[in-house]
Amino acid sequence: MLRKLLNKSTVSLTAGFFLLIVLSIVHLTQGQADYTVPQLLTGVWTEGRIQDIVFSFRLPRLTIGILAGGALAVSGAVLQTLTNNPLASPGTLGLNAGAFFFVVVSTIFFPGLFGAFPFITALLGAVLSSLLVVGLAGKQMEPVRVALTGMIISLLFASITGALQLLFENQTNGLFLWGSGTLVQLNWEGVIFAAPVILLMFLCALLLAKPMDILSLGEDIASSLGQNVRLVKLASWGVAIVLAAATVSVVGPIGFIGLMAPHIVRMMGIRGHLQIIIHSFIWGSVFLVGADVLGRLIQPGQEVPVGAMTALVGGPWLLYLAWRTAKSMKRGERQMGGTTKPVRLKLIVPILVAIIAGITVMALSFNGSAWTFAWTEPVVWNFRVPRVLTSFIVGVMLAITGVILQGVLRNPLADASVLGVTSMAGAGAMLLLVIFPAIPPEFLPLGATVGAALALGIILVTAWKNNFQPMLVALMGIAISAFGSAATQVFIVKAKLAVASALVWLSGSTYGKGWEDVQFALLLLAIFIWPAIYLTRSLDTLTFGDDVAAGLGLNIRSTRVWALIVGVAISTVAVSIVGTIGFVGLVAPHIARRLVGFRHLPLLLASGLIGGLLLVTADFVGRILIAPKDIPSGLVVALIGTPYLLYLLRKMK
C-alpha cells in the first residue's frame, strides 16, 4: 500500500514538474516581442534584446504566476479541511472579494495607504471575510451553510465594490484589469514582496500538515488525542488568509485555482496533508501558468485577464463538485418557519401602504436640495414619477421571486442572486456588449434573458434526476453565480470604453427610467403574478417536506420545475429593466414572514409591498444622498439589507 502511494506521489510530482517546465518555456516566448524557443534558450544567457525582455518583464510574470498559483492552491487545501467543505476556497468563501473590496476602498479614500501597504490592506479584507464566514456559519461548519454564507459575503462585497468603481471611475480606472486577476508585472517588486510571505506560509502549512491530519478525524477525536484544536484551527486559518491576501495584493483576485488543484491532487490518489500541500502547490502553479499561456494563445497581442481563463475551466469544475457534494448529503427538510402569531392582512396592508405613500411623496417632492409639490411639471412628471413607479414595480417583482425560490428550495437564503440567475444575466448582457460594442443599452436585456435562461437550463438539466433536491439546486446556484461573476468581470475589461454605461446597469440602477419602462414592467408583472399566486398552495404543501407533500398527492418534480421557471422569469424581467439588484429578494420575504407567517399567499402580498418599499426607499436615498450625483439603487439596497441579512445568518439554525 505504501509503495503504491509512493508511486502515485512520484508520478504526480514528475508530471507536475514536467508540465510546469514546458509551460514556463512557452510562457517566456509569448508577447509582442516575438522569438522562438531555440532563440530563447540560446539568447537568454548573453546580454541583448532577449535577455532584457526576459529578465525585465517575462520572468517576473512567470515567477509570480508560479508563486500565486501555489499559494492559492495551498490556501484552498487548508480551507477545505478547516471547513470540512469540498467547495471551500479563497474565492468561494469571500476572502478574495473581501481583500479586493479593501483594496478598492483604500485606493479611493486612502491612496497613500494602498501604495505603501498593499498587503496589509488586502489582509484586513481577507480577515474580515473569514471572520464573517466563521461567525455566521456556526460551530458545526455545515458544508452547505458555509458555502451559502461565503456566497452571500462575496455577493455583498462584490456589489459594493462594483458600485464604488462606478462612482469613482477615475480613481479606480486602473483596477478593472487587476480586479479580474492578471499576472502582468513591470518589474520585480511584486515578486520580491510576495515571495518571502508565500514561501514562509508554505513552510508553516507543511508544519501544520500532521496536526491537520489529526483534525480531519474530527474535533472530538483530535481533542482526545491531546491536540489543541483551537490553536491548530487558528494557525491554519492564519496561513490560508495570509496566502490569499498576499496573492490578491499582487495579482488581484483570481478564482478557482484554490478549488481545483486540491481536488485534482486527491483524485490522483494523494493522501495525507503533507503530500496534499506539496502537490497542490505544484499543480496550482501548473494551472495558473497554463491559464496565462492559454489566454495569450487565444488572443495574441492583447492582455486577457488570467482570471478569465481560470473561470473558463473552474466554472464547470465547480458545477461538478457542487453536484457531487449535494448527492453525497441527505435531503434537506429545512422548515421556513414564520411567526406563530401572524398579523392580520387587514392590519398590515394599510400600514405598509401608508408607509409606501409617505416615501413616495418624499421621493416625488424632494430632489436633494429643494422641495416641490408641482408633480405635473415636466421635470417631475417625465423623469421622477416614472422612476419611482418603476422602482416600486421592480421591487415587487424581486420580492415575489424571493418568496417563490425560498419556498421551492426550503432555504431562507435562496433568491435569484444565490441561484446564479442574476449573475448570469449580468454576464449575458456584458457578453452582448463585448460582441457588439456599438449596441444601444436598450438591447442589454436581450443578453440578460439569454444568460438567465442558461442558468435555469443548467439547473434543470443537472437537478432533474434528483427530483430537484433543494440542497443540490442551492449548490448548483452557488457554482453558476461564481462563474457568472467571474465572466462579468472579464467582459467588463474586454468592453473597454463601454465600461461606464455597463457598470451603471450591472450595479442596478433606476436612473433614467421613463413611462415606457413603467408600462413594460406593469404589463409583465400583470402576466406573471397569476402563475405566482397559483403556485402558493403547492408551496404551502412543500413546506412540510417532500414525503408529506407526496403523500398529499402533490407532484413535487412538476411543482419545482414550474416554480423555478416562474421565479427565474420574474427575476429576469426585473434584471432586464433595472439591472442586477440583489438583496431585495432575500430580505423582503424574511421581514414579511415575521409579520404574516409562513402561508405563501399572504406572504406573497406582504413581501411584494415590502420589496416595493425597499427599492423606492433605496432609489430615493441614492438620489439625494450625494446630489446631484446618483448612487446606484443596488448599492443602497445592499447597505440597507445587509445588516438584517447578516443578523439572519447568525440566528438561522
Automatic annotation (TrEMBL):
The keyword Cell membrane applies. Its main location: membrane. Keywords: Cell membrane, Membrane, Transmembrane, Transmembrane helix, Transport. The chain crosses the membrane at residues 62-79, 91-110, 116-134, 146-168, 188-209, 276-298, 304-326, 347-368, 388-409, 416-437, 443-464, 471-491, 520-536, 561-589, 601-625, 631-649. It is found in: Cell membrane. It comes from the Bacteria. The keyword Transport applies. Pfam families: FecCD. It is a multi-pass membrane protein. Belongs to the binding-protein-dependent transport system permease family. FecCD subfamily. PANTHER family: FE(3+) DICITRATE TRANSPORT SYSTEM PERMEASE PROTEIN FECD-RELATED (PTHR30472:SF37), FERRIC ENTEROBACTIN TRANSPORT SYSTEM PERMEASE PROTEIN (PTHR30472). This is Iron complex transport system permease protein. It comes from Planomicrobium stackebrandtii.
